[in-house]
Automatic annotation (TrEMBL):
Main localization of the protein described in the UniProt heading: membrane
Keyword Transmembrane: yes
Gene Ontology CC terms: plasma membrane
InterPro entries noted in UniProt: LeuE-type (IPR001123)
UniProt keyword annotations, A-Z: Cell membrane, Membrane, Transmembrane, Transmembrane helix
Record field: transmembrane: 41-65, 116-137, 143-166, 187-206
Record-given protein name: LysE family translocator
Lineage: Bacteria, Pseudomonadati, Pseudomonadota, Gammaproteobacteria, Oceanospirillales
A GO term for molecular function: amino acid transmembrane transporter activity
Localization per Swiss-Prot or TrEMBL: Cell membrane
Length: 207
């Protein structure tokens, strides 16, 4: 995989990980409720759930493209529409709902379980992988290229949420994020809409 293409993949994965939503709220909640270790545990197990979707994408989507490109096109457009809707919702949200998590007492086991379940049950993640990560997948991709896609998605997701947990366990970070939540929403909204337009424009070709 060319380095320039990998940078595009990494940027898309980073934007998906950093966008406010249930995954971020999960890590915040376990960090605030149990400290650094439960927060990191939630982050790492969430990354495992992300890796599962990445694995399904690289192994299953090539066959789907080969058998029915029309179905793939419909899925891609549906994903783009959903991303645009998320962007509009983020722009309209203002300060409300950007980053909210209540502190509750938690354990490492609970953090691990919820980390996986939130990843697997998050509809944004499902469509994110079908609509966006699939742009990097072709039926004739090598095993190494597929592994790079999977590992990139996992490492960026896990790395970001580990940083969140470590940062919040110190902590002047959360109040700052809450004060600037409207800017988090605005930037996220613009990026999501731009990415939706990119998806509609056509697949990202792998050289």
């Amino acid at each position: 995989m060319p380095f320039s293409l990998w940078l595009s993949l990494a940027a898309i994965c980073a934007m998906g990980a950093m966008s406010p939503g249930p995954s971020l709220a999960l890590v915040l909640r376990h960090t605030l409720g149990g400290g650094r270790l439960p927060g990191i545990t939630a982050a790492l197990f969430h990354a495992l759930g992300v890796g599962f979707y990445a694995l399904l994408t690289v192994w299953g989507l090539g066959a789907l493209i080969t058998r029915s490109p029309e179905v793939f096109q419909l899925i891609t457009w549906g994903g783009a529409a959903y991303l645009a809707w998320l962007g509009i919702q983020a722009l309209r949200a203002g300060k409300a709902g950007a980053i909210s998590a209540s502190a509750v007492v938690t354990t490492n086991r609970q953090a691990a379980k919820e980390g996986v379940l939130v990843a697997l049950g998050n509809p944004k993640l499902i469509i994110f992988f079908v609509a966006l990560l699939s742009q990097f997948v072709t039926p004739d991709m090598s095993i190494i290229a597929k592994a790079i896609v999977i590992l990139t998605a996992m490492l960026i997701d896990g790395g970001w949420y580990v940083l969140v947990a470590v940062g919040l366990s110190h902590s002047r970070v959360l109040p700052w994020l809450q004060r600037h939540a409207h800017w988090v929403n605005r930037v996220t909204g613009v990026l999501l809409i731009a990415l939706a337009l990119r998806v509609v424009a056509g697949p990202i070709m792998i050289g």
